[in-house]
Amino acid sequence: MGAAGSSALARLGLPAQPRPVWLGVAALSLAAVALGTVAWRHARPRRRRRLQQVGTVAQLSIYPIKSCKGVQVNEAECTAMGLRCGHLRDRFWLVIKEDGHMVTGRQEPRLVLVSITYENNCLILKAPDMEQLVLPVRLPSSNPLHDCRLFGLDIKGRDCGDEAAQWFTNYLKTEAYRLVQFETSMKGRASKKIFPFVQNYQVAYPDCSPILILSEASLEDLNTRLEKKVKMEYFRPNIVVTGCDAFEEDCWDELLIGDVEMKKVLSCPRCIMTTVDPDTGIIDRKEPLETLKSYRLCDPSEKQIYKSSPLFGIYYSVEKIGNLKVGDPVYQMVE
What's the superkingdom here (predicted)? Predict the structure, then answer.
C-alpha cells in the first residue's frame, strides 16, 4: 500500500495494513522482466559490418548511348539507375528501329565508333565520315514517345527528333533508325522481369543492372590466354577496380565505394558483343568470347541462369546512392 493509503487509514484510526508479500514479488518480477527486455534488446545481434578494402577505383565510365563509346569521368554521382555526371546519364539514350526494337552493337557493330562529348547542355556525337551531331539533352515535351522493346520487355523513350534519326540512318546505312531518350519520370524495366530471383530495382536501357564492375587483374588474366590482346573497352564496365587478384570480384557481395553502397545482383554473362573491336567497329564473332568460354563457364548448379555464357564482371544494384571518384578505396562489407 502506498503512503497516501497508510495516511488515510491513520486518519480513520485504523492500523496500517502490511503490504501483501505477493505485491512486492510481483513488482520485483515486473522490474526483472523490464530489465531483461532492455538487456535482450541490447543483446540482440545487430547487423554490424566491418569494412575490408579489396581494391581501388581505377576508372569510371558512363555510356550515354547504348553501344556507343563511353565517357570517362573522374567522379560521378551514383543514382539508383546508374552513374551520372551532370546531364550525362548511363545508357539513357537508345537507337531503335522504327518499330521500337532496340539496336545495339550486336546488330550494328559500327555503333561502337560513335564518340560522345558534352558541351553547353548538349551531347556532341562524332563518327567516321560524318558531320558532328549536336543533340540537346533537354527535349521538347511535344516530341513523341515511343514504345521500345529491350530483350522482350517494354519501355518508353522520347524521340530525339528527325535530325538525330537521319544522322544514325545515314551513318549505319542499313535501314531507318531513330534515337530515343529515357526520362526519369518514365517507368524503368523492373529487375524482377529480367531475373525473377534478384533484388528489386529498375533500369533504363542497360542490359541487366545499373552498375557493372570489372577488375584490371581479370582483364590481365584473360590477355595471358589470347593471341591478340584486348582492352577494357571490349567489356564496357562502369567501374574498373585495381589492386586485387584476378576474378576476386566474383566474391564481392556488398560494396562501399565513396558513400555509395552496392549489392551484387549476379555475374555478367558475356555475349557476342565482346567480339566487337571498339577501335574498328568490326565484329569477330569468336574472340575473346571463345577463350572466355574455355575457362569462365558457370558452376553446373547455375546453368539454368547463365546457360553457356562465360562470366566476366559483376552486376550490382545501388542500395545507397551517393558519390564516388577515381582513387576511392573499394571496401567489401562483411559480417
Answer: Eukaryota
CA distance 194 to 305: 11
Give the three-state DSSP class for 57. Answer: strand
Question: How many C-alpha atoms does 114 have within 13 Å on its Cβ side?
Answer: 29
Neighbours of 41 (CB within 10 A): 8
- CA contacts within 13 A on the Cβ side of 85: 19
Place of cell 557481395: 253
Distance between CA atoms of residues 145 and 97, nearest Å: 14
Whether 201 contacts 317, CB under 8 Å:
yes
pLDDT truncated to tens, each residue of the chain (335 aa)? 544 444 333 333 434 444 443 334 333 343 443 444 434 334 445 567 899 999 999 999 999 999 999 999 999 999 999 999 999 999 999 999 999 999 999 999 999 999 999 999 999 999 999 999 999 999 999 999 999 999 999 999 999 999 999 999 999 999 999 999 999 999 999 999 999 999 999 999 999 999 999 999 999 999 999 999 999 999 999 999 999 999 999 999 999 999 999 999 999 999 999 999 999 999 999 999 999 999 999 999 999 999 999 999 999 999 999 999 999 999 999 98
CA-based nearest residue to 214, from 51, 53, 57, 52:
57
Dihedral angle over CA of 5, 7, 12, 15, nearest 10:
80
- Residue 258, amino acid: G
Task: Name which of 74, 151, 81 is nearest 316 in CA terms.
Answer: 81
Per the structure block, which three cell numbers stand in for 80? 539508383
Phi first, then psi, for residue 315 (nearest 5°) are -85, 140
Centroid of chain to Cα 117: 23
Spatial separation of the C-alpha atoms in residues 249 and 316, rounded to whole Å: 11
| Full strand arrangement of the beta sheet holding 177-181 | 102-103, 93-97, 177-181, 153-159, 145-150
Q: Report how far residue 12's alpha carbon sits from residue 7's, in angstroms, rounded to the nearest whole number.
A: 9
The number of angstroms, rounded, from the C-alpha of 294 to the middle of its chain's C-alpha atoms is 27
